[in-house]
């Protein structure tokens, strides 16, 4: 490797030494070494089998969440995680690893499209300009990325493989019967599904579900055939296609979305406020929209279970777990009834619900369905005279509900609204006919879009029942209520008439309300209470109050008296109306009551046992089944925008969809003259403007002739993929970024992902239930299909905190941009134009607040090494920290002092000594040890503190003399290298090395040097510290006294004084008390 170019200074100021480390010299050193690294390919990491690959070194894959390259460029918050990963990557190279540390661009996105609308410039042009600026800024930090692996999601050679992954999902189904890696099923090719259907191993149920022959789902055999199923060959071609399409992992469905006609796009829930768009305040409609969906729900159990296999923050695991939302319960079928003034008609279908509390089935007194539920549509389609509901009111309510966001509909603070549908159903446990209402607090996205309302045991159902005067029936009591109800049935006439019932009940509760006494023991306990009460009461004033009985009575008396008279108490329990009378639902676990019919009883069973018994009964009678449900919804994958990956799908004139052949990928975006959305109540994707591109033939679109004849007229899919598409697999592409034959080479993926995923992944916690979840889903899909070797994408995840900044706040909490504020010079601040006082606050950096700090400016003032060190020294990586450029001066001075230890500022020559100073050597070992221990823990601030301490010790120990030997300078350059690589490389080069230090071994600390043979002890005379002396570790009192008395400064302080007493705290302090 050639010798690096020399560094010249030529400082223009005469009073500054010509070789002082300042901003000018820092810039020369840094640009020199960045150029060297690029020219020599220092950080290009070969793959297995490529020239230069060293198989003897273990691998380490270190990755940042790649950025969206906005036109504004980086601010000082962005490099926080990039600096962290670079420090770790450099350290791991020095520890003998092959390090994969790449960078790329998440470049599709709405901002570029909005800019194109404003300017007419194609998003590809502005995005590439922004990418060039981002790349320039990142290179100026000296990050050790392997730029040969750079990817961009907008590159057709990249999104060719994004489209390929979509097609792999489109051509796959999820077979729950064939577990992969611990259970939960796995993805398999559609061709294998068709083969099993053709062989007869799978049948098709009349509900469209797949049924394995011989499974529990085939409830009987008639003539050798499973009951309720059909063979594949019995289906028509259209029916066969419908079965296959219903099983695809990428499929088409209708989803209700927030559609803004003015903006011409779908909006997320948090972008809608009171029915209007956050941007512009335009009306927003709730509309069903045809969407491509990913069946992520098939992976719910594996996504949840495998969280235990990764080293992620507990908070992120909890967020994903809550988002997946696993719950165990039962599906229950309620037979539908239509009651007219002429007859009660049993309908053919049933209303199915999922409940986590099947033990409360006897308390279901009405049903509530989402306004979008098919049963509501059926009710609206019936003749007005067919049922009792007001069709006009129902229709108006449904229309209003559909224009409310899911977040708004679910808000607990809203007054409950609803309308009776006119339909009833039969509670399968009680046989009662109960009304079916529709209400907007029920959503189609969870369960079946219907709930059995148990108002006594659910707060929302309770509020709904109270408002609409619907029955409320107790079916679960906590232990205390169970005991009170028992006593209400068994109180004696004498206890009731004499008024003693309250104290008897209090005693009863005192003995039975705690512990795990079974209900069958309640009678014996009550008898024991009565026997005890027949004994004489304790004697003495206040004795009754002070006895255990009195204490117990005091504890329960308020609860008892809340029921009123005994007859009121008994009536509430008799009528199962305790919670209705109390005005609040009880939603906890307890004991079943009022829950029995001729076939099954739950009464007195604890909740857990009651659940199992009622589910057993439901399954036995065919009224329901055990079920695990998830809050997780399938991933809506369509966008109506332009700047995204096109779908590799076409439709024939009958609306049937077909895949584009792999050989025809990528399907590229057409040019558009106008990127403005079409203002319409009916969603129209922007790509529909490109009529010539959209309308084509199967052959021109790249559909295989085996799928469609080439001359067949087709229409391309005009939705585009979401921004999360390209970011859900980029970490795999980095392993083999230039492979044109496969999305990743098998050997490269197996080596770098190592069967467990990226070794260290750093990025923001805001991606917990978006990018991080979608990436796990795609990784598992590709793992099932044999395309990757690792079932998880990221073995270790770390979230960096925010770099915040100062802004100014009015009294009403609104923020004032920083350039509108005047510093009054007395610690107060005012708005320059009005004089209104404002208060400085710490907030997120934002262009809106004009408090963004550009890293280019900081680097120009101090250099990249100072920037890197300062940002890592501000505090723990995972905590938020306010940026203050003035504080970077301290780190800059640290580097200046380190430079002065090594370099003569006048001549530029090395300042070296022949023999090491023992104190400096010891501190160097300590620094190396601390850095090596802290970097794997990402404790950068404490590692840097060790470097600062070393410089302090070396500077103090040497005074004006040279502090370091050649070998010590060599080692401190290596220890410094991960943090301030430019200065480290320069010092290394000046020691005579011609190659980069990037792959040199990190210095090993000698354990013997990490312990002190002596300690420094302050000496106090007359209450003031006069000196510090060193004594051997473990020295006795006499040795402490001798060392103190030998110190000249102590002798001077004692001159002419008599020593009265010497107090020694070994290793801590020596205090000399003296007088005249």
Describe this structure in words.
- The chain starts with 22 loop residues before the first helix and ends with a strand.
- The protein is globular, with a radius of gyration of 38 Å.
- Helices cover 35% and strands 18% of the residues.
- It is α+β, with helices and mostly antiparallel strands and 1076 residues long.
- Strands 17, 18, 19, 20, 21, 22 and 25 form a seven-stranded mixed β-sheet that branches. Strands 33, 34, 35, 36, 37 and 38 form a six-stranded mixed β-sheet that branches. It has a four-stranded parallel β-sheet with strand order 2-1-31-32, sandwiched between helices.
Write a brief caption for the model.
The protein is of the alpha+beta class and 1076 residues long. The model is unreliable at 1-10, 216-223 and 542-551 (pLDDT under 50).
Keywords:
alpha+beta, seven-stranded mixed beta sheet, disordered N terminus
Strand content: 15-25%
Work out the helicity level. 25-40%
Q: Please give the number of β-strands.
A: 42
Distance between the termini: 74 Å
Structural class designation: alpha+beta
Report the biggest beta sheet as strand number plus sense, adding barrel if it closes: 7 strands, mixed
Overall average pLDDT? 90
Shape: globular
Radius of gyration: 38 Å
DSSP summary: helix tally: 36
Oligomer: single chain
